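>> received
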Amino acid sequence: MAAELETTLRGPEAYGLARRVIEAMEAAGVWPTPLNFEIWVHYLGDPEGPLGREITRILAASEPFTEATADMLAAEYLPRGRLTEEIRDAGRVLDRELSSVSEAISKAHQSQAAYGQTLDKAATSIETAGDGAGLRAIVSGLTSATRKVQRENETLEKRLDASTREVARLREHLEQVRRDAMTDALTNLANRKAFDEHLDAACAQAETGGGALTLAVLDIDHFKRFNDTWGHQTGDQVLRYVASVMGRVAKAPRIAARYGGEEFAMIFPKENVVQVEAALESIRKEIASRSLRRRSTDDELGAVTLSAGFAQRRPGETASALLDRADAALYASKHAGRNRITSAECLDEAA
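>> returned
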């Protein structure tokens, strides 16, 4: 449902939803702060979801909708709230491990210092010891002190080993959290945040290291009409299908992302225009060649087509400017009849 809501928020229906949200918040006496607005957008966008049911319960019980309530709901139900809480949990575990290791190291230092003092005393005592009994007592004391230090060192090694494993597990968990935060839940492609970061990094690398960089923007033709005819769930199936085709073509170092509702993007580091156009053409042809069926009813949906535009980065060009030129090429494909690919360089030559 989150993916469907995201699609709604990036289309004309978003304005109607926003008006309903404001009206509902005013009727409930909830201040339209940014956080409250986001919560209520999710509430009205999916009233039967977990967040929707909890807000319905709060309103039915006439409980006040305070800032604390909003913070609690955001932490529990909003995607970034859950992510923040996971990061906080990881931070607490890391703090605990570091405190434990610090305490073990402190004890080891104290033990080593005490052992050093024992050795100093033993050296002095040996000089004055006159008989075998006195020497045996000194050796016995040194043996006991050495064993104590060995036991404490073994304890420290075990503690450090356990902490190393826990930190490694924590690092792996945080890496998974990071991947989840950068992945579009519906299509499993990179999301908008990941795309922006990858594009900035690719532009910086192309600027310093040289080499080509090409950006493509792709859009499903007449997707709103398709959604209105067959419903959002079927529309989601189409989005997943298009993403799967793109994913097969976008092998590293290529990057494919869901840029918006039905809009996708691909980054092609160190590839020339011919290579990029061939890759995009293979995606376009495969998608257009399939006649899709609705899973729930087996109704034939017909073929889905894709329009695309791409631009090769110029020296000194920012990520934003490169994206603008790729978008312009996409719009040219749309205006020319859709189901086609347009190069920004061709547009420049024509101009």
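>> Residues 79-128 form the longest helix (50 residues).
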